[in-house]
Amino acid sequence: MPIRFVSGDLFDNIHGARAIAHGCNCQGSMGAGVAKTIRARYPAMYEEYRVRCKAEPRRFNLGDCWLWKADDQPWVFNLGTQEGYWRSRASYEAIEAALNEMRRQADAEGIASIAMPRIGVGYGGLSWKKVRAIVEAVFGDWPGMLVVYEEYVPKESADVSPSSDNQARTTSGGDGSESLGGRRPGKRSPGGATEEAKEGDMSVIRFYSASGEYGGFSNFSPHSITLKGKTWPTSEHYFQAQKFAGMSDEDEVRQAKSPMIAARMGRSRKRPLRKDWESVKDQIMHEAVLAKFTQHGDLREILLGTGDAKIVEHTENDAYWGDGGDGSGKNRLGQILMRVREELRAGGPISPIAEPDSRNKQK
Predict the structure, then answer these.
(1) Which residue segments constitute the domains of the chain, with CATH numbers given?
(2) Residue 195 pLDDT more than 50?
């Protein structure tokens, strides 16, 4: 049976998979992306996973596949794809070994259907095109059903294969760039994180939610920054507060209990907005993003790990900082992230950021 590459929510499991699979590090941490959701859904499994990782000698290693059997939920294949976390890259060899072992165990347990997200990408830092080739090589002739969620879409799932008048997208075709619904989608994982797509020969990373695999790119991500001699809970706090620099409102926004509250305070026109805001807002956003990715080593490694991919804040809620949802927006936050990536590679700031000609007053 061909592998099914679909969009949807892995945890809705509308394809009726008997088991789900996901990639794990070998240090006992499930703190982000799909693993974080699995940790919440399978707390007893998570505790056993930690015991295995902390044991001497360790009982969960690179290339391992450990099957957790649940009574009232799909079983879980935990794949040892990555030695550490944050700065540690996943391993193509480990992915191949773990997938082969997963197939062996599935056959032995009579499991005929498995669902999984893209593994080894995002924090793992690997190329989905290469990982997908491994998945196809291992499961291409498997008689069961393997469903691979390439794009996160809440509460629905649809094949992302081309229509019947095109080449069928099965185990032997495609590179993950086929369109869905007339556009090339960002690849997302449960939790709202977006991952890689393709536009021509260019990889594209679309992000939005702070809870997903590329959530660190969001200004709402829980990463504090230090600027102007103060600590700001998030880059959103800093950005919104600078609308009132030098006024009492600045510190009130800094002390907001969440980035959402800070954003609401900053967008409220009940507060006196600085007169030069439109001319300085891009530079202030750059300051916030640069501070965030220089002060947090884990985020720096993730950003550098995107290579030359185009980075896009994908949302219909913002056509200035984001892409407007349909690609018509200016994507200034994505542009600033790519600029900061260049600066990190170069070891310091590069030329001043250009201010676009825009009448959009969002944020």
Answers:
(1) 4-187 (3.40.220.10), 218-346 (1.10.357.40)
(2) no
